[in-house]
């Protein structure tokens, strides 16, 4: 009888132990890792962000992740390009500021954007986004041939249909933002901290040499005068031909 009681007690304690572990795993706030990279080169590139929720695929099913990006004045997002990508269901971005596509860096301000991620098919608990970014022309310089543009880390917002995923995250603030990129409904998103798995992104873009200014000006004027002369000559010859008929 004693051995039977001891066995029953052991089984009960084991069950309570594993139940406690399972409950803690289900209610704890998941760790989040973010890795970012830049694809392509030159003035037109792609900003790729991958978010990994360290949780089971079942738990994150029904969750959405939103990135609140701050784009520095040296870069911009093209609203017309983003609209085309959205129509083809490739990228979903909301621009929170008006964008001047032609303004140089020194006449521009930073841009705020909301980037809606998608589930990454290559990873069960990952989300991914790819956003085309473009570099602005910088003020010419006599000292450097390239300008450095630093991309700051985004704010990460999470929203889930299943409350049990975020039960352990109640200490983190709620942020109001659009539920999706196409509707006007606003939802409560939870701002979660994360670990960055990559170094801070720094883009190098070419800068014009201010000492080349006089030469560029002379060449521009010369080409303009030459083309104007060709046009006037063509008009004069056409007029003479018309008059002779």
TrEMBL record:
Pathway: Glycolipid biosynthesis; glycosylphosphatidylinositol-anchor biosynthesis. The chain crosses the membrane at residues 215-236. It is a single-pass membrane protein. Its main location: endoplasmic reticulum. Pfam families: PIG-X. Keywords: Endoplasmic reticulum, Glycoprotein, GPI-anchor biosynthesis, Membrane, Signal, Transmembrane, Transmembrane helix. Residues 1-25 form the signal peptide. It comes from the Eukaryota. It is found in: Endoplasmic reticulum membrane. GO terms for cellular component: endoplasmic reticulum membrane. SMART domains: PIG-X. InterPro entries: PIG-X/PBN1, PIGX. GO terms for biological process: GPI anchor biosynthetic process. Belongs to the PIGX family. Stabilizing subunit of the glycosylphosphatidylinositol-mannosyltransferase I complex which catalyzes the transfer of the first mannose, via an alpha-1,4 bond from a dolichol-phosphate-mannose (Dol-P-Man) to the glucosaminyl acyl phosphatidylinositol (GlcN-(acyl)PI) intermediate to generate alpha-D-Man-(1->4)-alpha-D-GlcN-(1->6)-(1-radyl,2-acyl-sn-glycero-3-phospho)-2-acyl-inositol and participates in the sixth step of the glycosylphosphatidylinositol-anchor biosynthesis. Probably acts by stabilizing the mannosyltransferase PIGM. This is Phosphatidylinositol-glycan biosynthesis class X protein.
């Amino acid at each position: 009888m004693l051995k039977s009681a001891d066995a029953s007690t052991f089984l009960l304690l084991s069950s309570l132990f594993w139940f406690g572990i399972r409950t803690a795993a289900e209610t704890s706030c998941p760790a989040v890792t973010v890795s970012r990279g830049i694809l392509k080169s030159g003035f037109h590139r792609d900003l790729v962000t991958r978010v990994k929720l360290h949780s089971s695929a079942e738990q994150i099913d029904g969750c959405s992740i939103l990135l609140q990006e701050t784009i520095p004045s040296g870069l911009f997002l093209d609203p017309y390009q983003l609209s085309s990508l959205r129509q083809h269901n490739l990228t979903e971005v909301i621009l929170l500021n008006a964008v001047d596509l032609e303004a140089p860096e020194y006449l521009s301000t930073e841009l705020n954007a909301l980037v809606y991620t998608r589930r990454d098919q290559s990873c069960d608990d990952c989300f991914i986004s790819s956003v085309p970014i473009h570099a602005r022309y910088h003020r010419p310089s006599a000292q450097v041939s390239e300008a450095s543009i630093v991309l700051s880390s985004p704010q990460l917002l999470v929203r889930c249909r299943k409350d049990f995923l975020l039960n352990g995250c109640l200490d983190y603030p709620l942020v109001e933002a659009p539920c999706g990129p196409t509707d006007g409904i606003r939802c409560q998103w939870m701002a979660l901290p994360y670990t960055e798995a990559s170094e801070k992104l720094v883009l190098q873009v070419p800068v014009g040499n201010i000492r080349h200014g006089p030469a560029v000006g002379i060449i521009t004027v010369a080409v303009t005068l030459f083309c104007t002369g060709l046009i006037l000559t063509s008009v004069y010859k056409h007029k003479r031909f018309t008059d002779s008929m």
